TrEMBL record:
Native source species: Anopheles sinensis (Mosquito)
Gene Ontology CC: endoplasmic reticulum membrane
The protein, known as: AGAP007604-PA-like protein
Cited SUPFAM superfamilies: Nucleotide-diphospho-sugar transferases
Upper lineage: Eukaryota, Metazoa, Ecdysozoa, Arthropoda, Hexapoda
Origin: domain of life: Eukaryota
BP GO terms, sorted: protein O-linked glycosylation via N-acetyl-galactosamine
Alphabetized InterPro entries for the sequence: Glyco_trans_8, Nucleotide-diphossugar_trans, XXLT1
GO molecular function: xylosyl alpha-1,3-xylosyltransferase activity
Amino acid sequence: MSMNKVLLVFIVASGFLLFIYANSSIFNHRILPKETRNSRTAHMSGIVASALVHQNHHLHSLTQNGTVSNEAGSEASANRLKRVKYISKGLNDTEYNIFIIYTKESQNRILHSQLELFLRSLLKYSTIELHLHIITDEQSEQSAEELIKQQIERFHRTAFYTLYDVRDCAEKISDIVHSMSPLFNYRSGSYYSDALFLLSLGMHRIVDRNMQRAILIDCDVVFRSSIKELFDQFDSFAPDQLFGLAPELTPVYRHVLSRYRMNNPHTLFGSPYYLKKVPSRYDEPLAKEGHNKNSIHSSVRQRLGYPGLNSGVVMLHLERIRRSRLYEEIIKETTIKNMAEKYSFQGHLGDQDFYTLMGFEFPGLIYRLDCVWNRQLCTWWREHGYGDIFDSYFHCEGTVKIYHGNCNTRAPE
């Protein structure tokens, strides 16, 4: 065979071997660019979760006494947090689900400090393992994660947390936003016009269908007791109750309902929660206001008004909400418009306005939390036309469990 033929055979054989090598399943690893990998990790399926993983206790679990096994070493400290999807009880060890909304951090100078105080007080008083669910955006996600990690390590707690992309959440409740925004916003483009201020009304669509109960809490609150005590309130829900909210402690709805109250002077809608004490034989029905009649003392009982509800703390019985045909009818555009027209109601506080209307028109759907579980501190209305009656609304009896620093009021630490 001539030299030229040998060379030709060699070249053909080499090319064939290179083709096999390049297409081999062993060697053909496609490495994603770093930005693509991070993006997929952070936003997979629109719901991203991070957790202190219990299944690998010796390496990734931070126990109640704060110890980590020696064999994990410094590597364990740097790699405690693992991203997993939400999983139901039995794998994540807890069904104490707490939701907060943390978005637009760069546009709110005090939001970071509010979340830090929220987490610090929550973990300080907590007696249970928690699952934190953070609805956030790309610009705020990293900061939220860092704060959670810092406070978990500070208080030596075991906790899980899940991150949700607010845009994906908003898409799942687009019909609710379309129906309610015109009625419960001050003006188009206002602070409360974003879908995130109506998210609680469609939370049952957003979360995993295996999740049965959850509590949505504003991040401007400070805890004074274990969150377990609040979760225990679910056990007091009547069979038809879907949500739990505390009363509004300002005359905001007295103001919103001024026209309706003028035409209905005897209504309790928009009146202070604590009206007056009356003899125990007093037998006026309070069913329309939806209040529990069990607060009867030996000689006096407290007669309660309906000042509206505050959505700083919202208990969500998700399993019941999913099954409730009545609720599905209530959130339809026609029902909402009818309620608003009936009470000459034009609100500006998002989901809080809806709960307030629903709580008066359909009182059997809402469990009335005591004001100590949402002790609001905002005094704006005292200086804006209601100073003479403000204290009758602001009054809250009992030992405070949660302070709510709304209106950027600083809650006591």
